[in-house]
Amino acid sequence: MNKNYLTLLAAITLTACASNTPKAMTYDNKPNAGQSIQIFLAGDSTMAIKADDRRPETGWGERLPEELNELARVHNRAINGRSTKSFKDQGHWQTIVSELNPEDYVFIQFGHNDQKHEDPLRYTNPHTGYRANLTQFVADVRAKGATPILLSSIARRNYNEQGVLIDSHGVYAEVVRRVAADLEVPFIDMTLLTEQALNEMGQAQSQSLYLHLAPGEHPNYPDGVTDNTHLNTLGAQVVANIVVEELCKKDLTLNRYLTRCN
């Protein structure tokens, strides 16, 4: 995280502009032959695969397969609008658990929608339901001999009138930090890391990572869009880069499958 993000942004732009829409391989990134591990992604819209009519919105999880060798397969099961509660209640979590094999990995990143106190189908109290769900997810993965990785939510691009980036996740980010520490789970503090990236880039340039389009700029958004939560193609690549950089710092068998770590 000591990298200069302006330099990183410039480097990533070259590849992101070369292919403005993620390739079809973003769901299952490699052939089945010789497959050694599966990597499941459980989360919300900031991680999830997007439909064509939502482009150029892109989940950062769509870019993860590009970082892996032919022995790993990514299953991006993140779903727009889900919280730990709705993801579990709708059966999506149990589906992942049923498919797990020993040595697999599960990336778990929720929080944006757990905060929605006006929606009883999604809201979780951070100190009770949210914490309990994360704890259950960790236990379920470990019971199958697989490895959970917890991630806090990426930052919203939320600035005040003075141009100061405002915390938008509050206690939820702190709770996932505590769960990871208490249960000794590999953890990537994406709230902190993405806030650092946005602060280094500044308010004006950080807009280039999110879904901002002028009217008429893209056929999917004829009236334009200003969205400071969801990433565009470039933003997804930047966030995926941060995730991979942090993974390479950890002592994980997963790293033998990440080409950048070797």
Automatic annotation (TrEMBL):
CDD domains: Rhamnogalacturan_acetylesterase_like. Residues 1-18 form the signal peptide. Residues 43-237 form the SGNH hydrolase-type esterase domain. One of its GO terms (molecular function) is hydrolase activity, acting on ester bonds. Keywords: Hydrolase, Signal. PROSITE patterns: PROKAR_LIPOPROTEIN. It holds the Pfam family Lipase_GDSL_2. InterPro entries: RhgT-like, SGNH_hydro, SGNH_hydro_sf. The keyword Hydrolase applies. Belongs to the 'GDSL' lipolytic enzyme family. PANTHER family: PUTATIVE (AFU_ORTHOLOGUE AFUA_2G17250)-RELATED (PTHR43695), RHAMNOGALACTURONAN ACETYLESTERASE (PTHR43695:SF1). This is SGNH hydrolase-type esterase domain-containing protein. It comes from Halioxenophilus aromaticivorans. The lineage of its organism: Bacteria, Pseudomonadati, Pseudomonadota, Gammaproteobacteria, Alteromonadales.
